[in-house]
Fold:
Amino acid sequence: MQLSTRARYATRAMLELAASYGEGPLQLKEIAKKQQISPKYLEQVLIDLRKAGYIHTQKGNRGGYMLAVPPQEITLYDVISTVEGSLAPVACVDNTALCSKSGQCVTREIWSRLKDKIKGELASTTMADLLLAQEEKNTEGGAIFYQI
Structure:
């Protein structure tokens, strides 16, 4: 199972916004340049996060994007599930009606547990946690670049 580019870019953009939390809005071009993401693609990703209430926009000359929620209240699960939807490895985990064998299927139980473990791991990690981990990496040397 691999996360989409959309999920990775959403995470990187949210980390960029978390790093500037409380300092005012960041312009789309600035986020895109720092994270090496196409501005047009990034704009589409940020629309989903804005609709979900994790970021808001400020219009005007000094406008841009900023977190609507403190970084310690936004989990990696929040971000990824917003842009990806379900993290179930197979569709029958979320909808047993899709498979006539779901009631007797032992692998469905494994897929369900896998989904729960992935969700648990992502839900236990906040943007603030990731920022702290990034700061620790930066003290070891190197430039800031979020690769999720």
